[in-house]
Inverse folding.
């Protein structure tokens, strides 16, 4: 038997960890007319079910050699400090059973304090900050914690509808442990008065929206230096461990 | 107790400031035996290029193994990254350099044909799209593949198979919407 297909011998079935399917009421619909850019970019055909097999229950384990010393500190990547309100953003990456996901790569990117991205496509006439690139990365620790130091991003206008403004947010990219857990999302700040006007946050089922909003945590603040926001990220959970079956014990 | 999962949001138009790596498209180095380029265009429902998409690929090594602790067949050495990441350019083009993965055993004693799992992110996509790329020089393995077999319409099924595009090159266009829409997968 070829090495590739090892694991197929009679009596020793390939046993894979199972991940739950996506939970209804969690994610935005792909077709969300209030967010105009979805119009020509959402599939019109139903999705084809893909049972989770080897490629889906594994995934890239990235990060070794990809995270530099100042990558978690967006205020320390240039000779001077960026303008804006210095903040600490921290939380844990968990799976749906509340288990921490250690050693997983977390990537973030954001606008500067004036609401401008360091990107050629950003035409918002707010100033760039020579001391702010707006990108960070880190690996979670053994308990799944990530921690970034940055400045609070500004709100900014966009062209979705007349006088459209995005509430302040930080983009997050997560890998978790398996392809099934890959997630890109956005973290918001508590009490932002722009929430009711934002079709991107508003695309999320109402009961799930608050999961995207961080909370101010005075215990996280560094007095005389920075405010602290806490936000936990929950990736897809595993199925209950299947019972041993007799065939496997033979 | 279960924790409710965090909802997805769009990657937005400015992700290049944060998550593009210089070596993102290089799943393998240039001199790797069997290296080939797999790429194409991302197109919207009007047939226009999507210049602000991110395409990511994930795959087994040529022996059909993953350097991952949840591959029950045991650890592999060699540090095969298995992961590719490429933003689209102004014409909607993306490409990765990789090798063909091996076939994979399934839990019910079947075999999956060599394939790449693909994630597509873009402005205007509130949640990632997932699809697969199969190989045109594997007709027998493709005929026995459980995912391909689950798609009844042969024309739709064929859209998951890359098209030869010159030496060591395969083309795989991703059509988000429309008559020739790429089959997207619910995982």
């Amino acid at each position: 038997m070829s090495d590739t297909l090892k694991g197929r011998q009679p009596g020793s079935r390939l046993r894979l960890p199972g991940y739950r399917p996506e939970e209804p009421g969690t994610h935005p619909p792909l077709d969300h007319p209030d967010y105009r850019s979805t119009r020509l970019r959402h599939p019109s055909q139903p999705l084809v079910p893909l049972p989770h097999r080897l490629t889906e229950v594994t995934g890239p384990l990235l990060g070794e050699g990809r995270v530099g010393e100042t990558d978690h500190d967006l205020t320390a990547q240039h000779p001077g400090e960026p303008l804006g309100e210095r903040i600490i953003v921290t939380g844990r990456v968990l799976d749906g059973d509340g288990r921490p996901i250690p050693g997983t790569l977390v990537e973030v990117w954001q606008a500067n304090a004036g609401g401008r991205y360091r990107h050629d496509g950003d035409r918002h006439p707010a100033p760039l900050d020579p001391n702010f690139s707006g990108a960070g990365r880190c690996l979670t620790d053994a308990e799944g914690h990530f921690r970034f130091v940055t400045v609070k991003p500004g709100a900014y206008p966009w062209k979705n509808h007349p006088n459209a403004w995005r509430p302040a947010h930080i983009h997050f990219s997560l890998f978790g442990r398996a392809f099934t857990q890959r997630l890109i999302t956005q973290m918001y700040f508590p009490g932002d008065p722009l929430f009711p006007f934002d079709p991107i946050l508003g695309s999320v089922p109402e009961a799930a929206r608050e999961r995207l909003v961080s909370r101010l945590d005075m215990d996280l603040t560094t007095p005389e230096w920075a405010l602290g926001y806490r936000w936990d990220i929950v990736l897809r959970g595993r199925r209950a461990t299947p019972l041993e079956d007799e065939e496997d014990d033979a | 107790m279960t924790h409710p999962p965090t909802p997805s949001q769009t990657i937005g138009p400015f992700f290049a400031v944060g998550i593009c790596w210089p070596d993102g498209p290089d799943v393998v180095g240039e001199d790797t035996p069997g290296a080939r380029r797999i790429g194409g265009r991302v197109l919207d429902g009007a047939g226009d290029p999507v210049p602000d998409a991110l395409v990511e690929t994930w795959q087994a090594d040529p022996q059909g193994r993953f350097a991952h602790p949840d591959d029950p067949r045991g650890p592999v050495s060699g540090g095969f990254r298995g992961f590719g990441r490429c933003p689209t350019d102004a014409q909607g083009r993306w490409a990765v350099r990789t090798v063909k993965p091996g076939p994979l055993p399934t839990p019910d004693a079947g075999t999956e044909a060599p394939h790449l799992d693909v994630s597509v992110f873009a402005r205007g996509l509130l949640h990632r799209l997932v699809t697969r790329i199969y190989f045109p020089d594997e007709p027998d393995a493709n005929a026995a593949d459980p995912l391909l077999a689950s798609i009844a319409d042969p024309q739709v099924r064929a859209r998951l198979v890359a098209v030869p595009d010159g030496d060591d090159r395969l083309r795989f266009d991703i059509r988000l919407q429309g008559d020739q829409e790429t089959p997207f997968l619910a995982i």
